[in-house]
TrEMBL record:
SUPFAM superfamilies: 4Fe-4S ferredoxins
Keyword Electron transport found: yes
GO molecular function, one term: electron transfer activity
Official protein name in the record: Ferredoxin
Organism: Paracoccus hibiscisoli
Gene3D superfamilies tied to this protein: 3.30.70.20
Family matches, as PROSITE patterns: 4FE4S_FER_1, 4FE4S_FER_2
Positions in coiled-coil regions: none
Region annotation (Disordered) ranges: 85-112
Record key words, sorted: 3Fe-4S, 4Fe-4S, Electron transport, Iron, Iron-sulfur, Metal-binding, Repeat, Transport
Function: Ferredoxins are iron-sulfur proteins that transfer electrons in a wide variety of metabolic reactions.
Database matches in InterPro entries: 4Fe4S_Fe-S-bd (IPR017896), 4Fe4S_Fe_S_CS (IPR017900), 7Fe_ferredoxin (IPR000813), Fd_C (IPR022569), FdxA (IPR054829), RnfB_subfamily (IPR050294)
Length: 112
């Protein structure tokens, strides 16, 4: 089992989860985060830390797509291990529908 970041992180990019991760398996894109599914140890400490409720276990229905999404971008983006400020749009974008199609950027973030 692993945890994955889903589309509600897009345009929010809260990093509270990064700070508690014991294995540094979060990777930073321009406007979202992902978890490397092969590095995640399934400890679950990140899930309750996400203000946007964007982190889900892969055992939930329809998570296969998100596992592959997280795998793909974690291999392209830099690791992030420290908390940063969320995006300025975070509070207004939290919970918006169709964020993957409307706002997702493949560009990498700054990382650490």
């Amino acid at each position: 089992m692993t945890y994955v970041v889903t589309d509600n992180c897009i345009m929010c990019k809260y990093t509270d989860c990064v700070e508690v991760c014991p294995v540094d398996c979060f990777y930073e894109g321009e406007n979202t985060l992902v978890i490397h599914p092969d590095e995640c140890i399934d400890c679950g400490v990140c899930e309750p830390e996400c203000p946007a409720d964007a982190i889900r276990p892969d055992t939930e229905p329809a998570m296969e797509t998100w596992v592959e999404f997280n795998r793909k971008y974690s291999e392209l983006w830099p690791v992030i291990t420290r908390k940063k400020d969320p995006l300025p749009t975070a509070s207004e974008m939290d919970g918006q529908p169709d964020k993957l199609d409307k706002y997702f950027s493949e560009a990498p973030g700054a990382g650490d």
